[in-house]
Design a protein that fits this description.
Elements lengths: L5 H4 L8 H10 L4 E2 H11 L8 H13 L3 E7 L5 E7 L1 H25 L7 H5 L1
Antiparallel strand pairs: 1-3, 2-3
Length: 126
């Protein structure tokens, strides 16, 4: 198997369904354009999570169709035209629900991965 290039060695692949939650979380702090959302996720994850354009914009469009974000064309700080996204009231509710599901998933995976959860052969026979 070919070794991955250095830039990909420490990357973490997102679990399915988590990108929407991460985008909504970024937007909770205020409206942002797509590049700002991707940069925020990258920086807050210690550069472990890299959201590619090919994943980000379809997710933003999907979130907009679901009514969880709204968008508006505006000028950036460098006077370039960009679409800015803002979380909606329904988006905030969705974020809260997804965050609860995420916490349950983390606890469940933690329980499975914990050395205490593994049954020793002696315990199985008892």
């Amino acid at each position: 198997m070919a070794e991955k290039p250095e830039q990909y060695r420490n990357r973490v692949d997102l679990l399915q369904g988590t990108l929407d939650m991460l985008i909504l979380r970024q937007l909770q702090w205020g409206q942002m354009h797509g590049y700002g959302i991707a940069q925020g996720i990258r920086l807050k994850s210690g550069e472990a999570l890299q959201v590619e354009t090919g994943s980000l914009y379809p997710a933003l469009h999907r979130l907009e169709r679901q009514g969880w974000v709204k968008s508006k064309w505006k000028l950036t700080e460098s006077s370039q035209r960009a679409k800015f996204y803002k979380i909606t009231k329904d988006g905030k509710k969705q974020l809260a629900a997804e965050h609860k599901r995420w916490e349950r998933m983390v606890r469940a995976i933690g329980a499975v991965m914990s050395p205490d959860s593994a049954m020793s052969p002696d315990k199985e026979r008892a």
